[in-house]
Amino acid sequence: MAPLKVVTQVSATLIIYFATRHLAADAFAPLISPRKRNSISIASFRAGLLSAENVETYPSDSTHSTPEERSRKAKETWSAVALQPTSNVCRKEIQLNGEAATIYQRSLWEEFSSIKGTYFINGLASCQIGDRLIHPFEAHGFCKSIVFDGQGKVYYTSNIVNTPLTKEERNRNTIINRGVMSTVASMDSLLGNIRNALSSSERDTANLTADLWPPPFTKNKDGIEPILISCTDNGEPYAIDPSTLETKGRLVDVIPKLASVFPKGTKFLAHNRYDEENRRLIMCVYNMVIPGERFLGNSRMEFVELDDNFDVVSRREHTTRFMVFHDWALTENYYVVPKNPAYLRWNNILKFCVGLSLGTDVFAMEEHTNGEFILIPRHDLNAKVKEVQSDSFFNCFHFGPVYEKPNHNELVINGCVFDSYTFGGEMGFDGDKQTFSPIEWGSTGLQSNGSRSPPPRLDQFTIDTKTFTITSKNRVPCVPVDMPTFHGDAKPCKYSYFLGASRPEGWFPFKQVVKLNCDTFESFVYDAGDDQVVSEPIFVPRNNSHGEDDGFLISIVHDARNKVSKILVWESQSFKNGPIGECVIGDLIPWCVHGSFYPGFTPFTTLSN
């Protein structure tokens, strides 16, 4: 029994490590036909005043009128995007006023064309490796950059994130490590079970985020140039050349001083945060403690703040009961973590070890337990950590704006909340059938497999920072939404506008872009069409911008109908009027996940004429 115990504990550790990595409900999105300007305007409202009467819906362009038809179209669209073969592109020049562009508002498009800066976004390579499908959260990383030269041109580059596992699997054209949500062979045969049992549950593919550090135009004592940091949950950060998007290696190898800070094999969450005022990058190291207290498991997190020279400024650790999380937020005084309650299914661990089940079968959400927010003080390492309980269960994978109101002793949290959640079928992935059925998994109306994962809703919590209790909780019930971003994406410490992706039923694939004012709850939704998948929208400030809503919004849209990818652009303050234009950047690519925009920065020493 002793050897079996050891194997069980080690396997469980690997499972949960990797599971929390991609439990990022990183939804996916369909695209826009800019000619079809469909929007939903949600009038201003406050909690207690929300009803269907507050919603004004414009005609939809959907020709698929029944849930079954829309489900079938979503499956076709997402399968086309997810399974698209991946090709590297080396600095493709595109004219914003050329034949690749379709312009709807000329003067605003000309202004947009004068912006200089770079948009980096990470995401998935093809979800088909060899002859087998892999869960989207475990696909190889595929990083893209769109460089705006300020003179009417953009330069598009894309490159696979070449982690050691990715290189080996691409060279052999087969899945080598099964991970937590995927398999290397069918579980219906003894041989398949053996192959799965012998396959590692580690999948370090660096496929979720892309953050530049140190900030552009920084002069640090070691002369370190900006590095694009790519990571996934339960993985190691990788350093990418921001000019070519070639993978330089593990971050700790490229910045050797970090080797003593982060020993080999240290696992991180994908999401980092940036404290602009203090010029700090904050990373989260995350580990599961198995078997933990009373064999219930524990979660251990450590927040490490780095200055622009990659020197450690502070470290703060906290251990709590077993839970899962993917995103976290930063305020002036706190690291804010959603405590999404979960439990271990010890009886399924042996099944996973012998290849009879997926890693997601060894844990589940504990839906009879209320969700909590963990508030970890940033500056006083001796200050007590507070765990603030909500009135019900939640599974919060992504945060919108989170900020303090010091004059009112309040902390405001906007979170994309699942009221119920079943792991393993994200994006409609069915490993046994080797298919995608996204609506079936993420819908309350089309579930044949018994899973329960209704789409996330935006909840706004207010916490009293004197009593550390939740004093109010409001829901925006009319807009299922995920993939939130906002001006600076948590770089400033106060922001009112929330951007996200949505679809009217189910969770994924996203075909709508949402803009929401978190102060007034006024919302606008732009529908791209049934054969489009939208990516996480991003805010691009105007030249000489004077406010957090003074700029443009862009989303990379995956057009499954025309087999192209394009950027769709809105002027932020007139979002409700529809996009101002779009520009094709190339062939259809798999879904883009998380990214960041850097005003004024271009990674090339010279730009071609």
UniProtKB/TrEMBL annotation:
Enumerate the Pfam families for this protein.
RPE65
Cofactor field: Fe(2+)
Amino-acid positions noted as binding Fe cation in the UniProt annotation, renumbered to this chain:
271, 326, 398, 594
Provide the cofactor note recorded for this chain's UniProt entry.
Binds 1 Fe(2+) ion per subunit.
Query: Which domain of life, per UniProt?
Result: Eukaryota
Its keywords, alphabetically, are: Iron, Metal-binding, Oxidoreductase
Q: Name one GO molecular function term.
A: oxidoreductase activity
Family, according to the entry, reads as follows:
Belongs to the carotenoid oxygenase family.
Protein name (record) = Carotenoid oxygenase
